Sequence to fold (651 residues):
Amino acid sequence: MAESILKVKGIKKYFSTPKGMLHAVDGVDFEMEKGETLGLVGESGCGKSTIGRVILRLLEPTEGEIYFEDKNISQLNKKEMIKLRRDMQIIFQDPFSSLNPRLSVSEIIAEPLIIHNIVKKKNSELEKEVLRLMDLVGLAKRLVNAYPHELDGGRRQRIGIARALALRPKFIVADEPVSALDVSIQAQILNLLQDLQEELGLTYLFITHDLSVVKHISDNIAVMYLGKLVEKAPADELFRNSLHPYTQALLSAIPVPSIKSKRERIILKGEITSPIDPKPGCRFAARCNYAMDRCFKEDPELTEVGNNHLVACFLVEEKANN
Amino acid sequence: MSDNILEIKDLVVHYITDEGVVEAVNGLNMTLKRGETLGLVGETGAGKTTTALSILRLVPNPPGKIISGEIHFDGENLLELSEEEMRSIRGNKISMIFQDPMTSLNPVMTVGEQIAEGIEIHQGLSTDEAMEKAHEMLELVGIPRERAIDYPHQFSGGMKQRVVIAIALACNPSLLIADEPTTALDVTIQAQVLELMRNLREEFNTAMILITHDLGIVAETCDKVAVMYAGEVIEYATLEQLFENPKHPYTIGLFGSIPSLEHDVERLKPIKGLMPDPTNLPSGCPFHPRCSHAQDICKERKPIVTNIEEGHMVKCLIYEGVIEAKEVL
Fold:
């Protein structure tokens, strides 16, 4: 059994809004092993980015515990948290707004090293380290003094990756790292992330809405709907044998770039319901083609059905019992 | 009456800026038959949107300028029409769905008024009659008519895009240009909107140009595909020809860049390098700096159109027999 690196238990994150409590994340549990890539998928507003931020304590959880390498980090104070950030880093979605426009490439990559007192400001060691990181992510040396606005999206995302890697972290939250990029550049960055993982033994929490990307890069995939995990399984298993009606609809909705595979498409009715003060019951019930009375009254629990496959749905539960 | 609703010949569009001339569209040729759907595929900066705006003569001028070429719509050269004649075509015979439904609606007008506006102008109906027609359009795209008095901010993204579609189809256009109509939407909502567009297109027999970077959407929606690179169509084919037998190294590279849902691929095969700078396009074949088959001659000689078979055209020196492919394509 591989070593566990991250464990989250009953995480909740509520935001207070004028209309009521917004349940962005509403009781999520999962565990990750060292060197694993867990893909977290869901549509906009389902709370996937919030989870990423809560794990790094960029947002304070309303409830729940986070264990990093068996240490409960949900109660650490600011100083202890700064130390921990050497091990846990994030790559942001938008390579345009996540880089300081007034810092040069080398200054951006050097910043974490200076903040964490790893190297002294302005010495040759720092310069060497910045160049090493640039080389690692495939940025040409000549760009060392360039500013973000001079570079295209793919190169900017490489800066974001170099900055995240500067502290030699063990765990990285990658929040939609390729969504803003063109497909040919997207493929370059995905290959880079895979190479780095192999080389440095990184663990990724890979947040995305793109299901073909998540299948390509993940070992395991967790599907989220309105603040809750509805299904979690090894990547192949999820695509071969999805059980939750939402996952099935989500997978069938992806346009496949092939003219041979004509699949039956499940068109969902309606749109995502409001996460503000949600009613009890399954969050997906209102859009589900199979919803029963029970689905509107009780919350289904995420339960294992074999093969490391977990699902939260009464329909699946009842089928298994019969 | 000709079969072709749209014929573009040697279109050249430049943006003249202080930093230099942006060569957005460079000698583009394209035809579209009545009732047909053409997918216009390419990455950011390939000139897809500029091509669409040129058809409507909406290229912002300055800095944009249609340098040369012809755009024949229904037998008329649009580039020779007066601004007034053009206005009677826009939103009437040719209409457009823009990418971002959040910014393409007027925030201070109700959606009913926005749909009725075009109907009133183009069809000479009274305000009340136009509003009645607007209500029907709303129902057609699956929104209850009572919501005609609501403002755009009261709708979700998918609903807003439905409103935009209702506006575009209100005058029953013979050509609809959809510029990345579902890029801003979630996949389950995208599936709803694409299905709606497919049904409406069949009902009204509208010809459509669908601009997208998603080959999956092309596979599901289009009859013909034009792949654009650096302002040119580098491959043009029927859907079957392009997906079963892609010829241009760039098209093949695009397919290699997409993670597959059906096969397990360890590593993607991306196209090396970046899109060329449109103010400084490479000489010869614009794709040569990124092409794994390129030889010296590709830097000098601009490929011309080669016919692979009926309806399948490609611009590449390999198919002109000038150079040999490094591996079997």
Summary: Residues 216 and 258 of chain B are 10 Å apart (CA to CA).
